[in-house]
Amino acid sequence: MCRVHDELYEGLDPADRPTVTALADAAHLSRSYVSEAFSGKRRPQLRPFLSMVTALRGDPAEWEPRWHRAAGEQESAAAGETPEPIPPLPGVEDASPDEPPGGHRKEDGSAEGEPARRIPPPRSGAAGATHRSGTGGDPGAGLRRYPVRRFVRALLGWVLLAFTWPGRARRDRAAIRLRRRLVKQVRDRTAVEWGRAEAHLYLQPRFTILTADRHAEHVRGRRGRRARRVEPVAAPTPVTNIRTLFEDTDDLVLLGRPGMGKTTQLARLAHRLAVEALEGPDESEPLHVPVHLRLDTYRGEPFEEWLVTAMGRQYTGISGVLVRTWLSEHRLLPVLDGLDEVPESDRSKCVAELRRLRRVCPGMAVGCRTDEADLRRLAFDLGALRYVEIQPPSRQDVQEFLTADRQALADVHVALEEDPDLWQLLRSPMMLGFISVTYRNRPADDLRRPGSPAERRGRIFDAYVRECLLRERRGGPDESPERTLTWLTWLARTLTERQEHVLYLDRLDLGWLPRAEQMGPRILPNLAMSLCALGLPVLWVAAAVHAGVLEASVTDAAVLAAVMAVTCAVTSYHSETWFLRADEAERDGGGDTADGDRRRDRKGGGDGKAGRKGGGRDRNPDRGAIVEPVAATGPLMVLMVFLMVYVARIDLTAPGPLVVALAYFWVTATQMEGSFTDVFQPVEQMRWTWLLRERTHYSKAKFHLVRGAYSLFMWISIEALLGYVVHLLCPDPWWIGPAAAALLGIVYIVGNQFEPSLQDRRPRPNEGMRRTVRFSVVHGFAGLAVAVVGLMVLVGLATPDHDLRRAGFVAALLGVLFAVVRGFRFGGLAVLRHWTIRAILAHRGRTPYRYRRFLHAAEERVLLFRTDSGFFFPHRLLQLHLNTPAEHLRARVTPNP
C-alpha cells in the first residue's frame, strides 16, 4: 500500500486526489477498510486492492502480480518483525477503536496529545529465538514436541481424506454439471431473444461512455453540498461490442431511451458470457455463472431471496442452496434488465441491494431507460464503474436499413423524402422493426399525415396492429378483429395494472377478476366438494338397499342431503358477503385492500396469511367471520329441520340420514384442516416429507391448540363414520370399527404429508393445470385403492365367515369418500377455481373460451411473443399503447368493411 500511495495517489494532481470517503465509494468498500489498509493495520485482499487501484486510475493487470509478490514476501518474513506503518493519505482518519474520533497521527504513528511511540527494534539472538519458538532458546524445540500425537493426527487426516475423496469427487463433478447446465440454459434463452432482433436486420449499435467531469466535481466540492448534481460527460467510442465495454470494468450500467435495444444488447452480453464460460472440455468448470434476469418482479425483499425466486422461475433445476453457494463463492454474474420497471416505492431499496450485491459478484450489468430524469438519477445512484448509453441510429444507419429491402419499403423511402421530420421518428431500432413489418409492400399513408412525434408513433402502432390482424395464418385472416382487439386491450390493461409483462395462463388467480366477481370462484370449489360428500353417500345407501345388505329409506337420505346442500350454499354466500362488506369498510377506512383477500383465502385455504389490524390495540380481523354467517343462516336451518321432522316425517336417526350426516361431517373436517395448507395452489410437483410446512394463522401457542382441535375433530368424525358403518354391516367382532378407523387414519396422515409445490419452468402453455389434473386423479385413485384394499383385507380377515359383499360395501363407501377428499385437496379445488375464473372472464367478454388457441393465433400474427408457457407483447411501448379501452382503438385499428 505504500507503493500505491507513492506511485498512484501522489501521482495525481492535488485537486484530483480523493479523500478516504470518496475513495471508499469509488472502490465499493467501507471507509474503515480503506483507512486501515493505507495506515498499515490491515493487509487488503486481492479484489479490494484492485478496486482501490482502479479507483486511483491504476492498471489492475500491472498491480496484481505486485500484490502476489508482496503477499509472498510477507508470509515468508520472520514472525517477530513489525513493519513500520506508512503515513496515511491526507484527510485519512484512523477508524480503529483505540484512536479517538477525529484524531490525527503524527509521523511516528502516535495520536496528537500523546507521547510519540517508538517502534521496537526486531529481536535477535536468544531472545528472538525464544520469542519465535516459545520454548526456550532452541528454535527447533517446538517442532520436536509431541511427535507421536502430530503423526497420528496427520495419519488420521490422510485416512479420512482417502475415504471421503470419492464422495467429494462425485459432489464436485455434480456441481460442475449443474453449473454447465445453467449456463447452457442462459445461452439458449438469450440466443432466442437476441435472434428476434437479428431476424429483422438489427442495426449496429452505437455507444457513448459517460464519464464524470473532474473539474466540475472539484468546483462542486468547493461550493458545498447543496450544489447541483453534475451531469456526466458523454464520450463517443468506436467500440460496437458490448462485451468489450463490459470487459474493462466488469461493472456496467446500460442506459438508453425506450426502443433503443437495451434488452437486446443485454441478452447479447449474457449470451457471449455464457459462450465464454462453456469454452473448453465438457468436464471443465465454468469460472463464472452468468444469468439473465428481469427486475420487474422485485418487490423490496433481500436481493438474495429475489435471486433464488427469479432463477428458480426462469431456469430448470436451480435450487436456493445452489444460488446461495454461488454467491458465497463469488461465481454468480447477474445481467439484470428493467431497473425502470421496478415499482417506484421499491426502487431505492433495489438500488441499495444492487450496490450490496456488487461486492459479492465478479461482475454485474444493469439496464435502465432514461426518458425520465428520475430514472436517470436512479441509475447513477448505483455508483457503477462504467456507464454506457445507447445512441440513436444515424441517418446513414437508417438509410442502410431501408436500402437492404428497398423494393418492399419503397413507399417509406418516398415518405422520408417528402417529410424530413420523419427521420427523428425512425431513429430507433424498435420503430424500424415495426415499420418493416407494417409497410412491407404496402402504402405508407400513415407516415405522411402530420402530427407530433407521439401521435405519429401511435398511428404506426395502430397500423401495425391492423396489419397483424389481417395477416394470413393457418386458419386464414381473423374473422372477428373487433373481438380480438377487445381481448388484446384487456390483456394489456390488466398486465399494466398488475405491473407485469408476461401472461402465464395456468397462473390466473382471483386478482384477474374485479372484487365483486370473486365470489363465484371462492364458493364453487368448496360447494362442489360438499355436493360430492353429500351425493356419494346417497348413492351408496341406494346401492346397499338394492343389494339387500342395508334396510334404510333412500328418500329420507336424499332429502337430508338436499337440505344440507342448500344450507351449505347459503352459508357460503353469507360468509363471502360478510368478507366483501368487511373489505369495503376497511378500504373506506384507508386499510389495506389486499388484506381482505388474504383473510378470505385463509378461511378457504387460500393464498395468504391473515394479519392483524387495529387502531390503538390489536384485534382479530376475522372476528364474526363464522358467527355472523351462521347466525344469518340459522333461521333457514331451523325451518328446514322443522319441515323435515314434522312435515315430511323424516327420521334423522335412521341409518340412511345418519350415514349421510356422518360422511358430510368427515369431509367438512378435512376442509377445515385443509385451511392450514394452500389447497387452491396448482399442484405441479409433489414430494413426501416428514415436516410439512403449514400456514400459521394464530400465535404459536394458539396455533398448536387450534391445530390440535381440528385434528381431534377429524379423528372423531372418522371414528363415528367408520364405527357406525361397520356396526351396520359387520357388527362382529366389536373391535373392527376402531381398527378400521385407526387404519384409515394412518393412511390419511401419511397422505397428508405430501407437499405440493409449483414448478416455475413449464414447456407448454397451461402446463401447470395439466399437471394439476394428473396429480389430482392419480392421488384420488391411489387413495381409493389403498382404502378399499386395506378395509377389505381387515374386514375379511376379521370375519371370514361373513358375506364379503358387506365388507365390499364398507370399503366402497370409505374408499370413495377418501378418494374425493384426496383428489379435491391435491389439485381438484385449484382446477375448479381456475376454470371458474376463465369461465367468468369469457362470459364477461374479456377473453375467449378457448384462450390458449387465441394466444397461439396472436403469436402467429406477431401480436404476442412466447417464452415457455408465457406470452408477452413484442415491446413495452406497444403494451402501453394497447392499455386503453377497445372502443378508443376500434375505429382506428379495425379495417373498414
SSE topology:
Layout: H1 2-9, H2 20-27, H3 31-38, H4 46-55, H5 60-76, H6 125-133, H7 147-198, E1 206-211, H8 214-223, E2 233-236, H9 242-249, E3 251-256, H10 262-277, E4 289-294, H11 303-314, H12 320-328, E5 332-337, H13 347-358, E6 364-369, H14 373-380, E7 386-391, H15 395-403, H16 410-418, H17 422-426, H18 429-438, H19 445-448, H20 453-469, H21 481-497, E8 503-504, H22 519-547, H23 554-588, H24 594-603, H25 627-647, H26 655-673, E9 685-688, H27 700-729, H28 736-752, E10 754-757, H29 767-798, H30 804-843, H31 851-860, E11 865-867, E12 870-872, H32 876-881, H33 886-893
Parallel strand pairs: 3-6, 3-7, 4-5, 5-6
Antiparallel strand pairs: 1-2, 1-7, 8-12, 9-10, 11-12
